[in-house]
């Protein structure tokens, strides 16, 4: 299935292989039509889909800067993936400003998906699904789990959730609301973004990270103590990011921060100091 992206893209592409189970769980042609109509400067556009069960894949433009996750962790497997993109020697750590730029871009793209009609929920936001180009711009990627929010019976009321019988998303990034209610929403996407912010601040893996950072999350003015030393975070930047994490992921459901506010705050944090 060929998508017709509304955005201009480069000529090199990347393939995201999918399982037969993924094919069975998706109304692929309908979702391709929905997703290919989405266009935002920081949303990696879907170019096409192969539906052959043994070769199922999604086709996207190739982002040669790697994923945010690989650039943060720099583990052997991550370095191997970066070498496949042409980086023969390890890249220097991403600076605080570079991380904030990428996070702002991804948050802006996620908010855009939520403003569409029907609303699109990403459902798999993570550091691994944010990609960088060669200039350091960030792109929200892997919309393969994204779904349009369900239509109401009358078709006129805007809905904000998607019921599901399956769990989705990555360990550490999944909002407890999903396992409790079986519903994805703007809030559960926001929760995953909040964890991504914390991963970017600390340079650590998402699983168990909230517990590891418990003290700083309770007292954001101590956030510099958990910030990755090689990124050059200022105390003000670290505190601002931790406050965003709390607003997106730790407060009660009804009091969580809107994504538009989080995206604007991430852009503001970039201007408060650091390299």
UniProtKB/TrEMBL annotation:
Cited Pfam families: PK_Tyr_Ser-Thr
InterPro entries assigned: Kinase-like_dom_sf (IPR011009), Prot_kinase_dom (IPR000719), Ser-Thr/Tyr_kinase_cat_dom (IPR001245), Tyr_kinase_AS (IPR008266), U-box_ubiquitin_ligases (IPR051348)
GO molecular function list: ATP binding; protein kinase activity
Key words, A-Z: Ubl conjugation pathway
Record-annotated Protein kinase domain positions: 1-275
Protein name as catalogued: Protein kinase domain-containing protein
